[in-house]
Predict the structure of Unconventional myosin-Vb isoform X2.
Amino acid sequence: MSVNELYSKYTRVWIPDPEDVWRAAEIIKDYKEGEPILHLKLEDESPLEYRIGPKDNPLPFLRNPDILVGENDLTALSYLHEPAVLHNLKVRFLEPNHIYTYCGIVLVAINPYDQLQIYGEEVINAYSGQNMGDMDPHIFAVAEEAYKQMARDERNQSIIVSGESGAGKTVSAKYAMRFFATVGGSANDTNVEEKVLASSPIMEAIGNAKTTRNDNSSRFGKYIQIGFDRRYHIIGANMRTYLLEKSRVVFQAEDERNYHIFYQLCASASFPEFKDLALTSAEDFIFTSQGENIFIEGVNDAEDFKKTKEAFTLLGVKESNQNSIFRIIASILHLGNVEICSERDGDSCHISRNDPHLAHFCRLLGVELEQMEHWLCHRKLVTTSETYVKNMSRKQAANARDALAKHIYAHMFDWIVEHVNKSLHTSSKQHSFIGVLDIYGFETFEINSFEQFCINYANEKLQQQFNQHVFKLEQEEYMKEQIPWTLIDFYDNQPCIDLIEAKLGILDLLDEECKVPKGTDQNWCQKLYDRLSSSVHFQKPRMSNISFIIIHFADKVEYQCDGFLEKNRDTVYEEHINILKASKFQLVADLFQDTNKDGSSSTSSSSKSSRINVRSAKPTPKVPNKEHRKTVGHQFRSSLQLLMETLNATTPHYVRCIKPNDEKEAFSFDSRRAVQQLRACGVLETIRISAAGYPSRWTYPDFFNRYRVLMKKSDMTVGDKKLVCRNLLETLVKDPDKFQFGKTKIFFRAGQVAYLEKLRADKFRSACIKIQKTVRRWLQMVRYKKICKSAITLQRFGRGYMARRYAEQLRLIRAAVICQKQYRMVRERRGYLRVRQAVVTIQAFTRGMFTRRIFQEFLLHHKAMIIQKHVRGWLTRRKFKVARNAAITIQCAYRRMRAKRELKQLKIEARSAQHLKKLNTGMENKIVQLQRKMDDQTKDLKTQNEQLVVAKASLGSEVNKLQKELETMRSRQGDGGQLTSLKDELEKLRAELQEAHAHRKKLEEEHSNEKMRFEQRVEELERENSLLKSEKEKMNQRILHHSKSTEDQESSASQSVGRVQAELDEERQRYQNLLREFSRLEQRYDNLQEAKFQPGHRRNNSNQSSLESDSNYPSISTSEVGDTDDAIQLVEEMGVEKAAMDIGVFMKLQKRVRELEQERKRLQVNLEKMEDQSKRKGIEPKTTSEQENADLAYNSLKRQELESENKKLKNDLNELRKAIADRASKNSSSNELQDGYNLLLGQLKAAIEELDVRKEEVLILRSQIVTTAQQKEKETTNHIETNNLPEWTNSKKPIDKEEALRSYHGLCESKKLLEAQLQSQARKHNDELEAFHTQIELLKDDIEKKQEMLNHTMSLSPEAQVEYSVQQEITRLTNDNLDLKELVEKLEKNERKLKKQLRIYMKKVQELEVSVTAAASQSTTAKPEMTRQVTVQRREKDFEGMLEYYKEDEALLVKTLITDMKPHAVSATVPCLPAYILFMCIRHADYINDDQKVHSLLTSTINAIKKVLKKNNDDFEMTSFWLANTSRLLHCLKQYSGDEAFMTQNTAKQNEHCLKNFDLAEYRQVLSDLSIQIYQQLVKVAEHVMQPMIVSAMLESESIPSLAGVKPMGYRNRSSSMDKDEEGPGSYTLEALIRQLGQFHGVMGEHGLDPEIAGQVVRQLFYSINAVTLNNLLLRKDVCSWSTGMQLRYNISQMEEWLRGKNLHQSGAVVNMEPVIQAAQLLQVKKKTSQDAEAICSLCTALTMQQIVKILNLYTPLNEFEERVTVSFIRNIQNRLQERNDVPMLLMDTKHTFPVLFPYTPSALSLETLHIPANLSLHFLTRV
């Protein structure tokens, strides 16, 4: 493009600024080429005229678009120049606090002077395995790139860390080594990586010091080689050091310190082990107090010294050697305090003999005090012929002392480095290494000396190597993309290097001058002027003759020549060295031995064992007086040459550290200092090289996606994107040199991307303008339509108003006419009416006069008539009274005569007998009925007596037989003790019988009395019943009267009364139905009473009737079933509506009746059995006396029973009668209460009669039992008294004593049983009374409610009454429905009880069968060969779910089921089949009680599973298969353990299969632990499979096509930086990830894994997805955009949909995705106002403050229409989130695992139904 196009209006530029280096401005007027002034506007809106000159002031640099500001790769900038680089670094450093930025292959690291949470282990894990361009810039990314290229290319790597002091070189190198130690940890337990990291504290202590620029400045250079084996695990390391700053030992500038080790040792001087060092505070020593500040803020020297000692120990330095090192360091401090006194002549000096520091120095080093004192002040001169001892001046002696101190420290430093290398050395063969070079950067101070010269010389060499490497990479990139290679002109600093190291260069001249005996710095400087003045890079200062200037690649540096020769010579007198060699301490003597031999031996030995050659960077100087001794410059040049050879043999990676300010302030950026360092470290040179070629590179798809808006519609139809991009560029960019088409990328010259961005922005701007135009047109059209509509509306309203006014006028005119017409009419009518009224008045008065005259005449005639009428009436009345009195007198006389005649006739009839007969006719009928009833009862009594006689005879014969058997038994045994015991028992029985007779008499008396009372009570109840009936009639009459009184009301009231009358009729009908039921119950009672005395009524012994209660099995009461059946029948007969109220009462009565019927039937059956037995034995009839005894027994028992029963009934009936009477009196107005009372009274009466009948039957039976027992006792007694022992022997059947005792105990038990039955009947009666009370309360409430309903209904309107009645009917039906449901539930409950009882019986039977089988098996245990035959002969239906195997087949079983098992082999069978088979084998071993077999099988199973999993540790299918089987085996052991907690869900058959003999709780715990281990392995395998898919699927794949924008790529996205052996990230999509999850879930489901465990696996996998996604989002700026947030939310929604489809949404997986969900929402929400900040704080609750701020800092707009997040907004967020107590965590822990829970899930599978497929080859198993 032309200048006119580039420098147009609104273009932004950079102009120079003295303070900020560069300043932003904007062109406010188009510039035309050739104009001298460029019109600008600064950021503060102030105008500026910028002068343009062809030489002095060229056109200013152009600014990059805002979309490119803050890029993480400087080469991605469209305009590559110094201001763009500086601004990009400043923005990244200050706003989002990003300290790392790529610049091509260089990582620029800015020291933040603050602790950042970006170096944790989770960050290392996040960067491990990632491509360099995929993640945000980081030192770990460079380390990962080096590690990956080492493994991929089989080539050694180097990381070159450079920068000036305080820029952070040492920390960066330390973090790089930490990354290698974490990622490439040692394969064994040697902890090499820990030793590598432990070397850092040691080297910092002895090689770092505080300077004015850095509190922890490295004063030496080091190159650490970390060795790796073929598996790329660390096996060792080696360290080389360069140019230790020895002068710092004896001198420090103001506010600086010596090396840290001196201060650490002084801070620890109080320790007991350091007492002999004689150290005090560092302020007391000259070598540590020259800087006047011995402390560093925030540093504890004593704590650091402990870390140093720990590092020495970890590296294997012995305690004695450590003490020796500390002695040497202390001796150097004492040496510095040795006071040298000058003599008077000034040419000599001496040291005081009492100098304590010299004594301490000699003592600590083990040397002679006198010799050291002498040679510190003298020196030896050796010539060819003689040796002289010369005195030294005080200054010379001080210099010699300082030189000795530096020499001692340097040798100690080299010794420590050598021993560190030995501890890091390994005997294993090294395959490759990665070197980390931590070397000082380019330095320039106000006074630059020999040290700065060497440092800048080394940086010149490194810069040359850097330039060559960059040039080589550019060439490789162009050749790989098949772009024509054009030579790029870049700065070559070889002339500057030749100036320093070439023949007769600066170093050669310096060495030459050092060899001259009287050489001086001035002479050497003059030689430089003479020899090197012709060089372009050498200059002589104008104002100085003792300095020179070298033009380095970074800047001009002026060096002062003073001290060059001395520092280069590094002179140490031989006498001092010889004294130290003679030290009594071995370590001190070894330090100063001749190092040539040692160095050669060490080198040769190391070369044999490892590829790492341990070379000393600065060999120990030889004897100083030898001419061939190497100078410091020569040594440094040699070591630097060796370093360059090493670097050239490796692939270098560059880290340039920048110091942002000199005040060490956190996140403060000084532009001038930063530019100086950028120029010095070669970053700008890299930019210049990139800008000279094609710095901007785009892949074809990315270019197509970004700039397709510039294409035509026809171009979009072409399928080849390369062709489309080519056509577009050829159309847009006319100059073909501005771009090149590569194989996979398009290369652009500098500025072309900005031009394309401008075209794209213009296109969008034009599109926006078009959209705005259309929208504005639409808005105007809408506005115009609204105006038109408003105008029409106004017109319509105006015209309407005018029309209404006109109509109003017409109405007024018409009204006026009407008013006139009416007025005229009224006026005329009034005149007419006046005339008419006058005429009528005259006529009226005239007619009145004539009428009054006629009336006067009529009045006179009328008065005469009245007088006549009254006179005639008086005459007639007087005549009538006379006639009436005469008639009355005649009638009275006649009636008196008739009455006298009738009286005489009645007196005659009363004296006759016929009248008496009529009166006594009813009484005779009653007497006859009573006589018949007495005859019937007499017959029944005779029948019962006969039955008792027969029963007594049978019992007597039985007693005789028992006596005979007893005599026979006695004769056999010959023992008289038994006879005595029987006699005693008989005596007791007689006594009990007598007591029973006496008690019976009492009961008879009480019974007669109670009977009389009860009859009186019944009469009272009948009277009360009659009273209640009369009250009922009164109530009915009142209701009828009320209904008649309301007939005269309105029709609505009559309808309501009709409905009420209908309801009353229904209530009457219900009452009649209840009466009918009562009569039915009475008839039933009569039938039962008649059936009581049938001739077939017999019973058996009472002990047989108690079998049911004595049984061990729980009984099933059929009364409940019968009660519910009768209740349902009653509901069907009466209807739901009528039975709803009284169903509870009837159910209780029916239940009681049914119980009594069952008792009667049971007793009758027993009696019949007993009768049959007596017939078979031939019992004779009983006598009359026995019948009388039976009657007495019956009467006594009956009286006793009724006495106790009636006492209870008496109180209950009185209370019930009283309560009912009270309530009836209170509610006498209610007819329903009367009905309810009568109903309850009838039911109570029927129940009492029924109870009397049943009790009478029970007493009859009991009396029969008692009489039978008495007869047996008498017969037994008679036999005992009359018969002798010989007669007993003649009996055919001997009597057994035990049998007699059993019969006696049976009688006692029957007695107890009857008592218990009576008590239970009493309790039931009490329950019935309570039920009656409850029913009365319910009836009362019901009546009150109905009365309220009646009153409410009467007060309603007819329509409301209809509606209300419908609602009431619905409510009633609903209640009836609920009652029926309760009945159904009761029936179902009874059914369940019966089924449960049936299962219990079945279980008992099966247990008996199993016990029998077990007994049979135990009897055959002596014959093991028969056991197998027995199990084989079992039928299939008897299979008990066990598998038998021989002990020798156990290995084959384990091998078949576990070792050789493949999941697909059992895929078509029952899931977890191996687990079931193993458990069935365990069951059989438990069944036969073989503990060794159980132990062996379980142990072998567990060990085999562990071996299989170890062999297939990366196979998800196998791991899932054995997790399912292990957990199923664990569940089986729990389910069949016999523990009730695990048997709640078992079937009866499964409970039978429980283990019988062994408790396997310990094995359950082992299996539980094994399941947890398998689960963890399963999760690990799944995470390993999903790890490479997560980032690509969640963040990079376009699930929503064309949504994600594309930004210009930097150098890091070049193909050479990618992993060639791996597929690109685009190969994994969200569908692939979901498909993989579905595959995992399908495999787990196919193997029968519990859904709960599968849900936990999915939950863990979703956490891993969340952690990896969020960590990458926090470390990648390119994905922190609105479009990525949209894609991410869509992807998460798809995963949530997958969870819902798999029914896993309740597993907690979605909760684990909450952080990444909130991160996606954070990318999409507005980020401008304070309301937005508040919304973000309330939204992002799952994210920490660091994560939120990091995402906001990383947020990048993908086009110019989006805006960055302002710094003020981020500060606002931080202030709002300060209240949170978040853990200071940036990245999530990807290794976190949730605790797994294995819920107990029993199996519904029955073991006996399990089928074993034939393909498993388990023929040696036998089904049992």
Q: What stands out?
A: The chain has a mean pLDDT of 78.
